[in-house]
Amino acid sequence: MIYLIRILLFFAIFILSIFKLEANPIGVIEPITKDFEIPWGLAFISERHLLVTQRNGHLFQLDIESGQRKEIKGLPAIEVKGQGGLLDVRIGPKYAEQGWIYFTYVKLVKGQGRTTLARAKIKRLILEQWQDLLVTESGTHTSRHFGSRIAFDQANHVFFSVGDRGKRPNGQNLMSHAGSILRLNLDGTIPKDNPFVGRSDALPEIYSYGHRNPQGLAFDAKLQRLWAIEHGPRGGDEVNLIVAGHNYGWPMVSFGKEYWGPIAVGNGTVTAGVTAPEKVYTPSIAPSSLLLYSGLGLPSWRGNLLTGALKLTHLNRLIVQGEKITDEHRYLTERKQRIRQIIEDKQGNLIIATDEGEIYRLNLAIP
Prior knowledge:
By secondary structure, the protein is mainly beta.
């Protein structure tokens, strides 16, 4: 019996080595490609093909079976500086009928970078009918905290996040889009029921505010709610359950410290008028992207939130029960890679992109 086990183990290792697969306690890692330059956004355009944004202003179509990539032309001028560039990409909810693909990127306006939501269609690897849906009022002279991720609900709305653009007071300034999560109709018009519509002291696109640098959004279609994850300063990353019109505190309320010393940023206790986070990471993991997992590949993970950690280099899983996050687990720490984006394929496998330029499949269906 012992000899049979050894033979089977040898055979399994041999098979993994042939296909360059990597065994892991939570599945099998299957390499897809490498040598991208900070692949920031991922979106399936078909079951076999991914759209991949590079922060340096390039867009590719990637065949996940062969690893072949083809560059897609037709992007507008993109301000690539610091944390800015070509950011997220998502397939519109009516893609099969209308063909719209949504992007966020940084547009230079009067010498200042502004997070911008746009959409376009692809024909023969060329972008057509490009539309800037909202060039946000978020310009500053800094090159940090642009956000930005995109999410859709089931009522023809698109959400996208904008960081505070390196100016802390923006988080509480309703006449700036910076430090906010915004909501639009799919065509870029403003929903009539947005929380600040009709107010002279607030921009009507704002859905929630008091955010520092949200780089993950996930809409829960079953429970009709929006989750967001954002970078805190030194410590104090937050996971928030987003409610229309709510203030999430930044920079008045924060659980992090100044980068130059052990001085708290703002008040570490939630005050009146501020919505408390559902989860705080101290020390900071530096989260990027957010996925509500379907459970197709691993049923025990159904409804969990998954995020990539940049600073602490791991896959982070949050267990959600009701409106509360009750536990946390960390995986892939041994790879020591900055995980930038996580999406899910139709089989429930994870497609993961890292700042080191690698894109791979984590097959959760093979525990």
